[in-house]
Amino acid sequence: MNDIQNKVVVITGASSGIGKETATLLAAKGAKLVLAARRTSALAALAALTAQYDTEVIYQQTDVTQLADMQALIELTIAKFGRIDVLFNNAGLMPVSMLRDGKVDEWEAMIDINIKGALYGIKYALPLMEQQKSGHIITTDSVAGHFTGEGLSVYSATKYAMRAVMEGLRVEEVGMGIKSTLISPGHAQTELASRISDPQLRAAVLKSETETGLTATDVANAVMNAIDTPDNVGINEVILRSIDQRDY
């Protein structure tokens, strides 16, 4: 079974980590890709990397917090491929901090990217999927959307919020041929921890990711498995952790 070949897949946050690995795996399976991120040079490098596969890959600089950027991304997809089969809302931010430190700018950045960015993608992709009577929206969440801990309060809040959004999407689109999937990894080796401004929290998270974290490819494979299913099967949520992870 290969329900991936020739599917048109839009990936936000595609320049590194889970997005980059997912793009690489999907290209190898023959998916047609539209890659989006803020770092154009990284997107160009990824497109060059995937050129070895017998498929089509395009990219566009995109800030998911900007409605106009998300609209332009979806319009580019339709102009090039005539349809959109999968939207992978993968862009995310994780500058965790203690509430007592009151890092409002970091809180707002997480809310804008983790929640609004995904919602903006849904806003522009979903009506087209309804017209097609088919489509699949996938969002990268986290086990922090199921449990919270020290320093995780606001980050967890954004991930709990996306659980609500994606379950609402599933319920609203019953009978429309549209799938919704939430991918919730535990510790994972991505660039997210490097942006934590608190040095102690940054060191602790990096240590956890290094010692007990999943690789980005592990998570990308979960995304692949969710896409590679028959039309009548929806994998609504995947929680995955390294077998060596103890906490939450």
TrEMBL record:
Signal peptide: none annotated. PROSITE patterns: ADH_SHORT. The keyword Magnesium does not apply. GO terms for molecular function: oxidoreductase activity, acting on the CH-OH group of donors, NAD or NADP as acceptor. Keywords: Oxidoreductase. The keyword Oxidoreductase applies. InterPro entries: NAD(P)-bd_dom_sf, Sc_DH/Rdtase_CS, SDR_fam. It holds the Pfam family adh_short. Belongs to the short-chain dehydrogenases/reductases (SDR) family. This is Short chain dehydrogenase family protein. The lineage of its organism: Bacteria, Bacillati, Bacillota, Bacilli, Lactobacillales.
